[in-house]
Amino acid sequence: MKKILTFISILSAMTSVAQKKSDYPKSYDVVVGTYTSGSSKGISVYRFYTESGKLAYLNQIDDVSNPSYLAVSSDNKFVYAVNENDQGEVSAFHFEPKTGKLDFINKQSTLGGAPCYISVDKRRKNLFIANYAGGNIAVMPLNEDGSIAPAAMTRRDDGHGPNKERQEKAHVHTAVLSPDEKYVLYTDLGTDKINITKYKGGKDNPIVVANPPFVTVKPGDGPRHLAFSNDKKFLYLITEMGSSVVVFDYDNGKLKQRQEITLLPDGFTGQTGAADIHISPNGKFLYASNRGDANDISVFAVNQENGELTFIERNTTGGKGPRNFAIDPTGRFILVANQNSNSIVVFKINPDTGRFLQAVSRAEIGNPVCIKFAPAE
Questions:
Q1: Are the C-beta atoms of 206 and 139 separated by less than 8 Å?
Q2: Is domain 65-216 in CATH 2.130.10.10, yes or no?
């Protein structure tokens, strides 16, 4: 009887694992934003296969100037892209997941130069755009047909940091919604701040300054990208010039710094430029990319009780300039956009240890700088 019960227990565990695997589609669309100063002409779409990690080209839309950062709507019907130019614009596209086809809808001014980041709320009411050169965040309302309306408001930062070349003024780098979408947080590389605003969602003054309105990091670190923990209790910041990850306790729009940990090995003296940061789907690991002479991705274990990080390993990215990367929804692959070597490299990772295993595929594409997953159907 005991043997029968043991067998049933093992069979149940195997069924549970199988069910978890079957929860994921076998394929996804991968939408890729680029800089169009080289061979790329716009946005490309690939099919990604979750069992093999292979990429297959699907479609592209040309004549889109510098679509350097993308957002896919929660209903999977629309893709929005910043046009990272001096005049600052944002474009809307209808998206057909089965074919990967993108059709242009319209374009609007972001009221600030060099927009470099975009996010969209789940209800598809507003876009939030970080204008790097303009030093401001713009809130852009969305119409029912997916088109973009003129900006409802902008909020500009003032000030500077100690680095006279990089921090001569405000440089807003991200605009991220909190998991409950009650707040919008945006980083300012130029003033070493994370700004915090309440998101009201209406047409008039959709975001208002929170209390406290910001937190600061070490002068000269240059805040860049943000990632929330899966349990929503912690916020992680990657600093571009400091090449570090800063851990914050997060509670209803309030931040308290807990830890700062470097991305660099002891004795490193080369050029750096930390870029992107993501949490694994199971919430156990954090990944952070670094450019310059480093060209690597660091892996950290996430303490599930206090959110603190412990270094695991550092990996080359198979190219140069890993500006952006994405972890596939199954948590078994990581796709790295190597901007300066015109490639996306897919690595298999161990979801139980967080470690890189091996490169499994590669796609040649001009200056890739943003990767977004979308369900294929």
A1: yes
A2: yes
